[in-house]
Amino acid sequence: MLIAALDEELAHLQDRELLRTLTTLEAVHGVTATIQGRRVVLWCTNDFLGLSQHPRLVRASADAARRWGVGARASRLLAGSTALHHQLEDRLASFFHAPSAVTFPSGYLANLGVLGCLLSPDDLVLVDRLAHASLLDACRLPRARVRVFRHNDVEHVAGLLRRYAKARRRLVVTEGLFSMEGDRAPLKDLADVAQRYGALLYVDDAHGAFATGHTGRGTPEVEGVAHGSMIYMATLGKALGCQGGFVVGHSKLIRLVHNRARTFIYETAQAPPIVAAAVEGLRVVQEEPALRESLAGNVERLHQRLGPDLGRSPSHIVPIMLGGTQRARRLAAGLFGKGIFAPAIRPPTVPAGTARLRLSVSTLHTAGQIEQLVRALSNSMSA
Ligand SMILES: Cc1ncc(COP(=O)(O)O)c(C=O)c1O
Fold first, then answer.
1. Residue 89 belongs to what H/E stretch?
2. How confident is the model at residue 311 (pLDDT cuts 50, 70, 90)?
3. Based on the structure, what is the number of domains in the chain?
4. Domain co-membership, 131 together with 228
5. Do 63 and 115 share a structural domain?
6. 132 in ligand 1 pocket by Cβ < 6 Å?
7. Is 108's C-beta closer than 6 angstroms to any atom of ligand 1?
8. Is residue 128 in some structural domain?
9. Which of 52, 108, 207, 360 to mutate to test the pocket of ligand 1 (most atoms within 8 A of CB)?
10. For the segment 72-111, what is each residue's pLDDT rounded down to a tens digit?
């Protein structure tokens, strides 16, 4: 009976063109991969700086596996906190000019853990309508009162803070650089409003950290606001090419996380080879600004070639809005036939009626690959 019910659920997804399946990458080299025996250019990874296969990170990871083993053996509060974990946290804190930092095995777990220990049913949390699923889950799980504000609408946030003045603690939660839109939150104005009404601002900069800002310090750097005016969270699994999540902030917040965050306490620590790679990645980010410069060059080239109608976002995440899921899937399949891998992004990842291709630009894309993409897109969209 259970299997029949599951079958029905899957068939329902299939009928609405929402069934998802896994694609096997048979090999990966930079931004190219082999899929079904065919070589394609990847336009859908988050390896914005091309660090996932950077020789320095690969070497650091292999050395750490030999020295520390492949797994962490225990949770952080037991035997899982190696010198490497502390080194990474110290370096993240100092990179973001924060007193302290804590890492998690993923960004998702960081959001669940940190928001979980800050929020209770007596609290209010305001979250941007287009915030990532991990933020929505993290806000709902502690059963705080959740109110959704219009995307990037600071006035709406101010109004809600005025309306819900009595909550014990009030948090405003947003992404820094939005993962599906490619636009930035008005962090300076949000920080001002939060401060004016005695609320805390929590920023998930999964897509902005390390890739944007003059020195790689992410969306706050681009928006000209100090990391200290917010609780700043990001992932190690995107521009840094590794895996894991982190939060930087006041040392008392970090101590509370050590004591209260369930995804920190009841979770095996990050594997040492990945921690060592992240430490090295952070060095590369600081020592090789050319990586960010060439990413910015690629972004500009792609936006110019796409023109103002398509190249609307100001960043390395470029959504091509298509509306219906069928249209998005058909376009993605057509592109795959032309050697381009950019699967359709469908609800519930994005709101209904806003299916899209989400192109993500990497430092490693060549001018030729950008040209190939633009030609294939304009041929497929006009066909
Ligand atoms: C905005 C945002 N937050 C958090 C996450 C989760 O990060 P991680 O993949 O490290 O779990 C993602 C990743 O998809 C994301 O896009």
1. helix 83-95
2. low
3. 2
4. yes
5. yes
6. yes
7. yes
8. yes
9. 108
10. 999 999 999 999 999 999 999 999 999 999 999 999 999 9
